[in-house]
Every structure is written in C-alpha cells, then in structure tokens.
Predict the structure.
Amino acid sequence: MLVLAFDTATPAVTAALHDGERVLAESTTIDARRHGELLVPTIESVLNEAGVRLREVSAVVAGSGPGPYTGLRVGLMTAQGLSTTLGVPAYGICTLDAVAYASGLGEPFLAATDARRKEVFWARYSDCRTRADGPFVDRPADVPVQGLPVVGAGAGLYPDLLGDGGDAPPYPYAGALAALAALRLDEGVPLDPPRPIYLRRPDAVVPGAPKKVTA
C-alpha cells in the first residue's frame, strides 16, 4: 500500500506518503494564498524524498474540508485528476478528522479550524478516531464547548472562548491524514469519494440580469 495524501482546506498546503505502516515523507507550507501554486511541487517533493514514482501510488486521499471554496477545490480536483491518470481510487476524508487524529486524544473533545468571517468549522469527537457530531460552522461564542478541550488552529484564534489548542498540531498535516486513511483502509472501513464538504455558499456568485433602464 502506498497512500498519497494531501490537504488544501486550511492555510497549510500539505502532502505525505504512507506505506501502510509509517509515513515515508511529508512536506507542509503555510500559505493561505498559493494552494494552486504549491500543491503539485509539494507532492513532487514528497515522492522524491520517499524515492517513489507517482505510478507506484496505490491510493490518493484528499482532505474534503470543510474549508474555503477556492483552496478546497485545488486539493479535490488534484485528487480526481490523479485518480483518473493513475487508475487508482481516490478518497476524501474530513479535514477536521485529520486534526482530531493528530491530537491522539482518547477522551471527548472538539476540533476547530478557521472558517474566516469570524467563524470556525468544528466537530465533536469521542476520541481521536471517532467523530460523534458535525462538522458545523458557527461563531466561536456559539460553539457548545461544555468544558471539553478544543484542538486545532480555530481554537488558537479565539483562546478566550475555545482555549489555546493545547499541544495538538493546529493544522491537518498530511502525515496524520495519510495515517488515518491507511488505518481505515486496512480495517476495511469504507471511505468517502473526494467530494467537498461545503457548509456555506461561496463568496462568488453569478451576476444577475442587468436592470432595465427607463427614461
């Protein structure tokens, strides 16, 4: 098994390769404005570091969000393109699941990422492998923390309301995404297709018909 995983649903442009037992290589750049420019070179860097050719990859996994429309689309379209080119399956995993898995927590908690507009994407977990509810998008003050720890960059943005995120990684690094995908594939857990999780409409809209001008 060689799982190529990447995520572009947050400011982290991240990719990793997993052989079913461990992460062979991982690379991440934090840049919220250059997902499209950075993803392919990041994938190439990971493959080169691991000494693996692209055609040897047996599965492609992309973070499916939630996340901003433009960044999220870059990763998912790349996954679909690689799947078609290589003739291998492509899967999508909730980006918050990768954040949660990297925390290693064994008790209930929340994971949150930045949704912009002074909001966060969040979900509730029973442990680092099990999502119990969500994902949702809310203002930080409306997230029902109920005394639970909150991990992820969304928490660090609003420490007075959500805590500081603790020692857990703030972003869905691809190493955790790849490891989670490999674990689920090994256990026979069905994975979703690489489709985006959108929790609100994109900012760009199709212009309406021009208004009639009367004399």
Summary: The two ends are 70 Å apart (CA to CA). Residues 57 and 94 are 21 Å apart (CA to CA). The longest helix spans residues 69-86. The mean pLDDT is 92.
